[in-house]
Write a structure and sequence with these properties.
single chain, 182 residues, 2 helices, 14% helix
C-alpha cells in the first residue's frame, strides 16, 4: 500500500512539514551541503570547465555535494580529484555561503596542490590554471564562484581570517546569474 504524504502544520511548529498521513512520519526537507575548494597553483587558480548541467561549458571551482560518511574537507578533496584529477592540501575554510533559493549551504576551502599534475575528470571538459588577471569572469558558472574567487584573492597572502559569508547585497543567496543558473 502506497503511503500518502501531505504538508501539515504540527502543533508548536512554524512551518508545514511533509508528513505521512498513515503513520505520522515527518520527512524533513533540508538543504544540501556543497563542498569545494579554491585551489591555488603557482600564484594562479585552478578552474574546471563544466561538462554537465547546470551551466555546462562554464568555469567553476572543483565542488559538489558532500556524501554521507565524509567530512566537509574529505568531500572537497574528493570533488577536486573527481573533477580535476588533483590531490589537494587544504589550508582551511575560506567561505560559507547560504543559497536559500536552491536550498544549499556551500562550504568552500582554500587549498593548494599536494602533488603535481591535474587533468579533466568525467564532469569536466577541461581544467586550466588561470592567472588572476585572466579569470574568465563572464564565463563563471555561479555567483558563489565569483564570491569564492574574490575571497581567495583578498586572503591569498596571509593566514585565513574567519570564513567569508554571503555578500551583504545577497545575504540570503537569492540572486542568480539569470536563466536559472545555480
Amino acid at each position: 500500500m502506497a503511503q500518502r504524504f501531505e504538508h501539515v502544520r504540527h502543533p508548536g511548529d512554524e512551518r508545514d512539514r511533509l508528513t505521512c498521513l498513515d503513520c505520522g512520519f515527518i520527512a524533513y526537507e533540508n538543504p544540501k551541503v556543497v563542498v569545494g575548494a579554491v585551489v591555488e597553483l603557482d600564484g594562479g587558480l585552478l578552474l574546471c570547465r563544466r561538462a554537465i548541467e547546470p551551466r555546462a561549458n562554464f568555469w567553476t571551482i572543483p565542488a559538489g555535494y558532500m556524501e554521507l560518511g565524509e567530512t566537509a574537507a574529505e568531500g572537497a578533496a574528493r570533488e577536486a580529484w573527481e573533477e580535476a584529477q588533483v590531490r589537494i592540501a587544504i589550508d582551511g575554510v575560506l567561505a560559507v555561503y547560504s543559497i536559500a533559493r536552491i536550498g544549499q549551504v556551500q562550504i568552500i576551502f582554500r587549498a593548494r596542490l599536494a602533488e603535481p599534475g591535474f587533468a579533466a575528470g568525467p564532469e569536466s571538459l577541461e581544467v586550466r590554471r588561470f592567472a588572476w588577471e585572466d579569470v574568465p569572469w563572464d564565463e563563471l558558472a555561479f555567483p558563489s564562484v565569483h564570491w569564492a574567487l574574490r575571497a581567495w584573492h583578498r586572503t591569498r597572502l596571509g593566514p585565513l581570517p574567519a570564513a567569508e559569508q554571503n555578500p551583504e547585497e545577497d545575504a540570503r543567496g537569492m540572486r542568480g546569474l539569470g536563466g536559472g543558473a545555480e
